[in-house]
Amino acid sequence: MASHCKTRQFHGGAPRSLILGRRDWLLLAACIVGLLVAWLVYGAIGPDDGRSLAGSAGTGIPTASAPAIPATPASGPAQSRPAQSGPASFGDALAVPPATGRPAGAPRAAPGPVASAPQRISYPAAGMDVVVHPLQPDADSQSIVPPETMDGYWLSTFGSPGAGSTNTTYIIGHSWEGLDAPFNHLSSAAAPGDRFAVTTATGVVEYTVDSVATYRKSTLKDSSVWTAVPNRIVLISCYTEDLWGVNLVVTASPAAGK
Questions:
Q1: What is the spatial distance between Cα 216 and Cα 103, in angstroms, rounded to a whole number?
Q2: What is the Cα 133 distance to its own chain's centre?
């Protein structure tokens, strides 16, 4: 369908549409400033490529060699979106308050076995008992994608559990849609105060959960989760109520007297 417009003919003097008053100039200046700010912000943070997929424990994880650089989002095993909707709001903050009042970044001593590679996690309160394998982040793509299994994967370029640890230990694993996978249980059962054990090559280290938190995958890479804290351990998986958009993070420290 064609459209028809009338062109108004102006007689005498310049057309009103070409005369900018003081208010027009102020509005134009505000628009230009807004575009400049948006361009600067875009240049600083880059676009969100929107490639986060369900079941990916590693989305938004930086590499150990360059922790300030965000990773490329990684895809996971689930093939369809979950039916549930996510919580009303998320941020780079705890969804569940820490169980203790210990200041962040103040590690607890870790007596016992010398720091070494983790081999198994036993978390009775969450019904979780899984084998742990070493996994080295891809230095080229800066992405961390655990194999599509129900096991746990230790990020070997970060810390190790045990005495003498100099960094945070990270263990990640997939949550699966429609399956009773061990890492799914973290979303429904993990809570501050829980205790779990990590078997290593040199012995067993017991931990107490300090906090359980949810993070949008787009913010996890820039969160304090990646602060180096000796003797701390962090478990990361996808949040089962929003596998596509949210990660669940369980943070723990060596149990007192262990």
A1: 24
A2: 21
